[in-house]
User: Fold this.
Amino acid sequence: KQMQQKMILQSKENITETEKQKIGEWKIPNLENDKLVDFSKFKGNVVLLEFWFKFCGPCVKAVPELNALREKYKINKFLLYGVEFREDFPKENLQEYVSKIKINYPVLYKGKELANKYSVQAAPTFMIIDKKGNVVYLESGFDKEKIERVIKDNL
Assistant:
C-alpha cells in the first residue's frame, strides 16, 4: 500500500502543465482492428484510460465494474479504453484474453510509450482526461467511488 502511494505521488509529480496539454498527440492501435485511435479526437469528451496487462488479477477483477461504468455514462460524452502496456504478448493472444475476461470496452495495445511518459508502472492504473484534454486523475489501483466522482465532476 505504501509503495502504491509513493507511485501515485511520483506519477502526479511527473505531470507538468505542458505535458498535460500533449495528451492529444498520441495515436495507439485498437486491438480489434489495428486502426489508430487519435487522442486529439477525444476533446469534448471525458476519457478514462485503464492501463493493464495480461494476467493482472486486480485488472481482471475491475472489468465488470468498468463495463458497468461505460454503460452508465456512455450517453454523456464519456469514453473508456483499456490500454495494454506491457507489450509482451502477440495481438492474437491478447484478443483471446480480452474476450475471455469479457472486456466490453475498446482495448488499445502497444501502450508502453504512453505508460512510460506518465510513469505508469503498476496495473491497473487509471487516467482520466477532461474535455479539454488535460489529465485530471492518474492513480494506480481501482477506487471505483473516487474514479466515478472525478468522471461526474468533469462531465
